[in-house]
Amino acid sequence: MTVLKTSMRNFFAHKGRMALSAVAVLLSVAFVCGTLVFTDTMNTTFDKLFAASSPDVMVSPKGGAAGDMDQFPKSGKPPSLPASTVEQLKRVDGVKSAEGVVVSMSVTVVNSKNENMGSSTGAPTIAGNWTRNDLRSMEITSGHAPRGPTEVMVDADTADKHDLKIGDELRTIAVTGDHTAKISGIATFKVTNPGAAVVYFDTATAQRELLGATGLFSNINVEAAQGVTNDQLKQKIRAELAGLGGPYIVQTQKETTDANREGIGSFLDVMKYAMLGFAGIAFLVGIFLIVNTFSMLVAQRTREIGLMRAIGAGRRQVNRSVLVEALLLGVIGSLLGAAAGVGLAVGLMKLMGSMGMELSTDDLTVKWTTPAVGLALGIVVTVLAAYLPARRAGKISPMAALRDAGTPADAKAGRIRAAIGLLLTGAGGAALYAAATADKAGQGSMFLGLGVLLTLLGFVAVGPLLAGGVVRVLSAVVLRVFGPVGRMAERNALRNPRRTGATGAALMIGLALVACLSVVGSSLVASATDQLDKTVGADFIVQSENGQTIVPQAAQRMEQTPGLAHVTEYKLVNVEITTPDGKVSKVLNAATPSYADDLRVETTQGKLKDAYKPDSMSVFEGFAKDHGIKLGDRLAVDFADGSTARLAVRAITSDGTTVDKGAMYADIATVARYVPAERMPKNQIMFAKAEEGKEKEAYAALKDALAEYPQYKVRDQTDFKQNIKDQVGQLLNIVYGLLALAIIVAVLGVVNTLALSVVERTREIGLLRAIGLSRRQLRRMIRLESVVIALFGALLGLGLGMGWGATAQKLLALEGLGVLDIPWPTILTVFVGSAFVGLFAALVPAFRAGRMNVLNAIATD
Fold this sequence. Notes:
It is a single chain. By secondary structure, the chain is an alpha+beta fold. It folds into 4 domains: 1-56 and 253-408, no CATH class; 62-247, no CATH class; 463-534 and 717-861, no CATH class; 549-710, no CATH class. Helices cover 57% and strands 16% of the residues. The chain contains 26 helices and 24 strands. The strands form 4 sheets. Strands 15, 16, 17, 18, 19, 20, 21, 22, 23 and 24 form a 10-stranded mixed sheet that branches. Strand 16 (564-579) and strand 17 form a beta hairpin. The two termini are 29 Å apart. Residues 278-398, 738-853 form the ABC3 transporter permease C-terminal domain.
């Protein structure tokens, strides 16, 4: 009880000094809890949507079941089954009703201004027929359901986003052609719609416009009669369909919901674990803040601890007293963080809403495990971080403490720490070297991960040793121009190298990751640009932004564009190849022969143009080596949507490429001989070459030709390179945003260190003021000390990060991305920005130091 009282008294006596540490714990726990609440809410939203929209039992053709349906099938039309199956299922015992469904996501819907009505967040545009099952998840709130080919119904969310109203005209673009109709009704979701755009037609129109013919459905929804379970009904339907011989798939409501959840779950898991990873980095940085805080508090209470030891307190009691303070800090910070996490999750939901992904607070999901995990993490991390300072406090002898002599083991511990740090750094450097010289990317990645971990730990451990030399160099450049004030700031930073090293290490971690990712991102862009310059001969590239195939009417417009020397079609065909050692499922890249000019692919044997001869193909180098394939071999190729062909291997392409790496080519005319026209995949991407000297005119003409199809982007090589740069830049900006949490915690660490340092040097500051140091000079001294510590952390972090990034680029070179590009403007900006971070961190401590009463400061014991 005495230990608890002492700890409580000390904690609240230093509550101001504990505040920033508590904020660091709060932020880290809030990020963890916010991530869990946000992803749980997304799961709840999708679960409710899938459960509400799934029938008792759903019957689908092969490839069209929930969970395995290709969102954008290569043919542009979803798999279908005959309408006669509906009538057959109605006669099955236990069936209350059966209804044919038409649904397709390979569509684009535009308004009268030719603006795409689809989501900008990647959510699909769904077109289909209005059925009784839709009433489970939607209700018509305006107008009426479509009654003929000239009418269409749209969901309320899409209508609100794009100011659509009844009577407005919409054009639906599908592989079967363009279909124009006027809005006859608006339907509102009863559950949250995360962002999909939905349009409904009458059944006949949906069959004709989406499936290409009446008499077909993409699914059948079956409702169970009273007293019949979904599982029982499934078995009866399977028995009935067994006699038809078709590859039908039967799923209950639960199976359909689970399959849909699994499909979206992988995306949500990636988001969840990525965000938790960055929260983990923030926790790691927070450890340095907490260690520094308790180390300084213990140092400032040395005499107090000595008195406790002198009147009978044992080492364990002193140790326990400090740990109880840490426990209180962890509990308070974690409780506040768990509450803040809910607010953060709501903020993330609002942010996603502004980007087009709707999430309702009605679905806000806070599981009991979320605050439990946040509390456990916050408390455990805080107590662990305080363990070393607590242990150090317990080892102080009473007489040494009363003399303010500190602990005699400090120097020895510093030497041991430096030795361990150098050993870890050396081992990490060896691992990075092994990664850079690895022959295989998989093996090199393991060495890279090990090298990153060891060098990070090594730099953290050796930080106090590095502080002496690095801070002196930085001071010579930055501080000496400020005269005596600058020299005092330098001495203050060097006074306690362990504290400077720990404070700088907190900033080092975040900036090391920033530098590493900047180098990797810049190298990716530079390498891709270099590969495009070397290999791509086409002037123009046309493709969809969301993975849709190119509809025939758009392809025809492209082929009719004036000023083009040639247009290249490019399709992806699923095949099964019988190799000398067995069967292998692959994708065949079918293209017109001009593709050999549009993409200059190196070959190790044969000529790529020969692969476009009748009944010929190419394979890539690794595939040929793995399966014992030689030039001239004939391979049995089973087309998923056709018959079997025997294709001769006329070329073996090099693996030392980036664009289309691992592709196997054949002429579209060859594929057309074995795949029926109605099952032939549509173009995945198209290329074009302008007539000599007409590049600008052809570019403008091509854009005009495809203006009515906004889902496709026309890019020349400059546009394509810029698109790659923008995509990498967007990804890096997201990562930088997440890393900002760790950097904020590191800044709090600098603020806390300076604040406690000012308290520790109260008497010294009073004496300096007494002999003539002005308030302005005092504040400048503290600001300069903060700047040099921040620059120390930045220099270590940026140097370490560039080393990691350069090593990672060596691994990328094994995949054909061989250009190392150091983004010096970014690196220099971050380094200079670190000085401003130091200035900002010193504002409050410097202001408080300047307000000290000189006489009171001198009288401080």
